[in-house]
Amino acid sequence: MRSTIIQVSEIHNALEELKFQGDPLADAVVAELVSSGATEVVNEVLAHFRDNDQPIPENLPEPVRRYLVVTDDPPGWADLERVANAYEFFVDDGVHVASVLSFGAMVNCYAQPRPSRVLSLTHRLNQPHRRLSETSQFVLNMMAPSPFGSGGSFVPTIQKTRLIHAAVRHFITRSGRWDVAADGVPLCQQDMLGALLIFSVQVIDGMRRIGISVTEREAEDYYYVWRVTGAMLGIPAEAMPETLAEAQVLNAELVEASYGPSPEGIELTRNLLRLYEDMIPGKAFDGVAAAVVRQVVDPEVADWLEVPRSRVWGRAVGTGVRLMRLLERAEDRSRTATAVLDKAGSLLLGGSVRTLTNGQPTALTIPAELREKWLAAGVCPARAAR
């Protein structure tokens, strides 16, 4: 018993230390770029660096080139066959993953006061469309047939994401508006680990909550891809649980235990719900997005973030979830059930494709093979963008 207590204590101490850890590799690159005044040039070059197969651009400062070389490959322990298994899961249920991610995971992120405060300091409280489209694109690139290999575009996405995170840490810590001693490093490794658990463990839980069947093998493989991704994002491998069951425990102890109300989280959620309502034409369906959020997230979290209640839409969504469960059980036997289920799941991803920014469309790039399979199945939301 005593050894168990000591082990648990050591784990908690290690997790607490993650609050004060950034990403030394990416942080050093950003610090050098800022000091040399080369950030704009690098941004312009990297904007065209999008595919795994592209050679690393020659016209980059040497520190950036070294960083791109060092971060170019997945960790040696990564099993690419398991990664391929997750792609098959995403072919079948990707639109549902996107819906739960958008209605549930995004909101759960806002239930964490510290990361929400980081967003407020980067002036992104009023830009939910941008965060939604960036997150959706990240997941789409991750769920390509070979995200880390030839034909994919996920590796440059990860590399640029690490640099963006490092830039946020750099400028916030030097803004005079963040107390590292009290609050830890902004966008620290603990925050990164928490986001990984929200986008993996909680997405699987959310899918099951609305009646989507996810097998244990599918859930394990989906989490595994996120674990490989986390390593490439700079999260220490030893901090990420090896199995989904262990990740579920850590999610409860690290992420859900950190939930609470904050002015920033409330405003982020309000703006996100407004975005969803704007996606749905007319006023007749006002309130349905909030009702879906309340179905996917914990009721206490919804209350903390002041997600509106609607008796009418709450009942309607609850009935819809029960219908989803019935249709899911019939999906393999009924083409009609399949069509209804997939149409419901594709609503939000289709909306993401049509998201407007100052009147201009924000298009998501769906990997070619995934797009072809979704089109063949009649569920590809990219049709709506044409």
UniProtKB/TrEMBL annotation:
May I ask which residue range the UniProt record assigns to the signal sequence?
Answer: none
Superkingdom per UniProt:
Bacteria
- The segment(s) forming the ER-bound oxygenase mpaB/mpaB'/Rubber oxygenase catalytic domain are 126-323
Q: Which GO terms describe its molecular function?
A: oxidoreductase activity
In Pfam terms, one family for this protein is MPAB_Lcp_cat
Q: What is this protein called?
A: ER-bound oxygenase mpaB/mpaB'/Rubber oxygenase catalytic domain-containing protein
Q: Where is the organism placed in the taxonomic lineage, from the top?
A: Bacteria, Bacillati, Actinomycetota, Actinomycetes, Pseudonocardiales
